[in-house]
Write a structure and sequence with these properties.
single chain; alpha/beta; 5-stranded parallel beta sheet; 5-stranded antiparallel beta sheet; 24 helices; 29 strands; 43% helix; 24% strand
Length: 769
């Protein structure tokens, strides 16, 4: 056994009254290679004081000193430091005294006549002392280990067992009976009897594992299996053992500990059942520590957020649910949970792919058995769809309110548009100069478009479907070309190229006009320094063999509307994104990113499709393909009606708009009708009552103050049941029910042209048969 006295100075207490002998001992030990630190004593008092001051590795003492002797020094040393080796180095010690000293605990004695023995004796004494210390430590560790095993056996269900392999005897700790109910045999049991406790389904595996370990000279064996209790019920255990071998490799003992895992297994099974129930929940259930690091993440959380449990474990909620940018509300949430123990509210969170989800969250502080905060339980319900439905419901309510508002506005707009339409018609019938006629045609077209826009607003606000009509798209392109020429910068030249016989399409003129306008505005913005804008129509027949067309394109006849510019162009990387809502290539504040997405939606609602071709620095061309219609266009130039004039029939016009009464009077009187006007229902009833037989026809508005059209018609028919009535209204509110109750001879929707008015009057007054 190695000692450490050669690696450090040896602490020596030397009891010697002769200085020459002191020097001799020091030199001899130094020459022998021992580094020593000496404490010197010459008498009893100095010796006793030295023993009190410190500890020493060895004591060297003379046997005979003045007024003191070595035997007394040995007794004092055994009393004060019994573990320190003691060597006599003397010239006067006799054999009997030396033997007595050894009996009383001296390690050795060396005669001064043979000083060469001193260094080996010191080495031997130091080595023996070191070995003694090591034995004491080992014995102490063994006692402590045995005591620990004994304590474990008393206070736990862990059974310590030992198998004497050579004698085939298994012994167990005294808690084996209390834990498993089997009696303890003083002489032990055989391994076969011991393995008999193991469940039949596990026995062969356990025996094979032990046999393999011993055959391969392995050191450690462990197994999870079941053993039978005395009552016949099997317990789940974890068994672990170590093997002790002889120097020749022969196994001597196998010592192990058997831990009862039954309750833990049952708890784990219960936890698995609870986890399975949590995974069946539709809500995201999350458990975090107090630093919001995720500890548990159920399957619904995986489904809602897109992260699997392995990806999020150990990460914070800020990293996972908010991608590192938590909203201020999160801090309020954590503060509320810390102060009140819970929080309930809504949060906008992010899925793995960045999609926003709206969660109804409930966070609760979980505390340990001492009441200290331990973790956070979070239950999140995905209410994104519910919120969308609520938003749609609110939008529907707003639209319903908007419909009521728009209906009222539409009545006033239609009343103001009617004089414009009728007035331009009247002026056009008088064959005005060419330049005046051109302006009147533009005014008429604008008024017609305004009429269509009001009609579409009403249909949209009511949530009804819009009725498509046959549209001459070439006429739309011409009008757009005029607007571009008049309103765009002069640095932009506009060219209009129309197919000689453009096919009509079925659609909504105002919406198609909006598509053209959006594309033209984008083209203008792409040419800040000027350029050429080309609007064109072309009849196209597509076949199934045609390539480079979108998947939605179907074979058939199409009218192609194209808008081309010579502007900056669109980079190839952005072409796939330009139709996405809110995506724009314009500078901040210059565009909403909704123009192209809206245009594409309108085109698709018309069963068409769009294509785009662009090169950076050379320009962009959008093509709109709309299915051709077989019906003739409704927007061809109207032929001026040639109706016979009236025969002086008297017509009573009832309306609360003075401008409308004036233009109606002018239009009818130009065709030889006699006109009476009334600015309200009461005035109309009074005039009619004075001479009911003199009035041939009544034209009345529906929406009037004090007395509406329904009351007016009812009062007039009480006076004269067979009077002919035309209802003219710019409001569509409850129109169907009004007409059903009133049953007029004709209805004409404001705004209308003078031709429409005259044609309706002629048809109602014309003799039947």
């Amino acid at each position: 056994m190695k000692t450490d006295f050669l690696k450090r100075p040896v602490r020596v207490l030397h009891l010697e009254d002769n200085e020459n002998d002191q020097l001799l001992v020091s030199e001899m030990l130094r020459e022998a290679g021992l580094r020593c630190e000496f404490a010197l004593a010459k008498n009893r008092d100095e010796f006793a004081e030295a023993l009190k001051r410190g500890s020493y590795d060895i004591i060297i003492s003379d046997f005979t000193l003045p007024s003191y002797d070595g035997a007394s020094a040995l007794s004092l040393a055994r009393e004060m430091c019994p573990e320190t080796p003691f060597i006599f180095f003397s010239g006067t010690i006799g054999e009997e005294a030396a033997v007595e000293g050894l009996k009383r605990g001296a390690a050795d004695y060396v005669l001064k006549q043979r000083p060469t023995r001193l260094a080996p004796a010191v080495r031997q004494a130091l080595r023996a002392a070191e070995e003694h210390v090591q034995r004491q430590r080992a014995e102490s560790a063994l006692r402590q280990s045995e005591e620990r095993f004994r304590i474990v056996a008393h206070v736990t269900n862990d059974v310590v067992w030992e198998w004497d392999v050579q004698n085939d005897k298994v012994t167990v700790s005294e808690n084996f009976k209390a834990t498993y109910g089997h009696p303890i045999r003083e002489n032990g049991i055989t391994s076969q009897y011991w393995f008999g406790y193991v469940h039949p389904d596990d026995r062969n595996r356990v025996m094979a594992g032990v046999s393999t370990l011993l055959a391969s000279h392995g050191r450690v064996w462990w197994s999870e299996h079941r053993i039978r209790r005395a009552d016949g019920v099997y317990a789940d255990i974890f068994d672990r053992a170590s093997v002790i071998y002889e120097p020749d490799g022969k196994p001597v003992k196998m010592v192990g500990v058997m831990i009862d895992m039954t309750q833990r297994k049952q708890a784990e099974e219960k936890i698995r059942e609870q986890a399975a129930l949590l995974d069946k929940a539709q809500d995201a259930i999350i458990v975090t520590d107090l630093e919001t690091r995720i500890l548990y993440w159920n399957q619904s959380a995986e489904r809602i957020y897109g992260w699997n449990a392995a990806e999020v474990m150990g990460k914070t909620l800020q990293e996972v649910l908010f991608h590192g940018a938590p909203p201020p509300e999160l801090q309020e949430t954590i503060k509320s949970v810390s102060e009140r123990g819970e929080w309930t509210g809504e949060l906008h969170e992010l899925t793995k792919d960045g999609k926003t989800v709206i969660m109804q969250g409930r966070s609760t502080m979980i505390r340990d058995e001492t009441g200290q905060p331990k973790s956070l339980l979070i239950i999140n319900t995905d209410i994104t769809e519910r919120k969308l439905l609520e938003e749609q419901f609110l939008r529907a309510q707003r639209l319903e309110s908007l419909g009521v508002l728009v209906s009222g506005i539409a009545h006033d707009l239609n009343n103001t548009l009617s004089p414009i339409l009728m007035g331009t018609n009247m002026l056009l019938t008088n064959s005005p100069p060419a330049e005046v006629e051109s302006v009147l045609n533009i005014m008429e077209a604008s008024a017609r478009r305004s009429k269509d826009m009001v009609k579409q607003m009403l249909a949209f606000a009511r949530g009804g479907e819009l009725n498509k009509i046959s549209v001459n798209a070439g006429q739309l392109v011409k009008e757009m070309g005029r607007i571009v020429a008049e309103t765009f910068p002069k640095s932009i030249q506009c060219r209009v190229q129309l197919d000689k016989s453009s096919w009509p399409v079925s659609g909504l003129p105002t919406q198609l006009y909006q598509v053209l306008l959006n594309l033209c505005v984008n083209a203008r913005d792409a040419m800040p320094n000027g350029g050429t804008l080309t609007l064109a129509t072309k009849n196209v027949s597509l076949k199934s063999s045609d390539v480079a067309l979108p998947p939605e394109a179907k074979p058939g006849n199409y009218l192609c509307l194209s808008v081309a510019d010579t502007g900056t162009g669109i980079p190839a990387g952005q072409l796939e994104k330009i139709f996405e809502p809110f995506f724009t290539t314009k500078a901040p504040g210059k565009g909403t990113g909704l123009g192209l997405s809206t245009s594409l939606g309108i085109v698709r609602n018309h069963d068409g499709f769009m294509t785009v071709h662009s090169q950076v620095g050379q320009g962009t061309e959008f093509k709109i393909y709309l299915p051709a219609a077989t019906e003739p266009s409704a927007h061809t130039v109207l032929k001026r009606l040639s109706l016979p004039p009236g025969n002086g029939e008297r017509i009573l016009i009832v309306d609360d708009e003075e401008a409308f009464l004036a233009i109606m009077r002018s239009a009818l009187e130009n065709y030889s009708y006699k006109v009476l006007t009334a600015s309200g229902g009461l005035e109309a009833v009074a005039q009619f009552a004075r001479n009911p037989g003199a009035v041939n026809l009544i034209i009345t508005d529906l929406d009037m103050p004090f007395m509406d059209g329904r009351a007016v018609v009812a009062a007039l028919r009480k006076i004269r049941r067979d009077v002919k009535i035309i209802v003219a209204s710019g409001s569509e509110k409850d129109l169907e029910n009004f007409l059903k109750d009133i049953q007029p001879d004709a209805f004409i929707s404001k705004p209308f042209t003078s031709e429409s008015l005259l044609e309706t009057v002629y048809r109602v007054l014309a003799p039947k048969g």
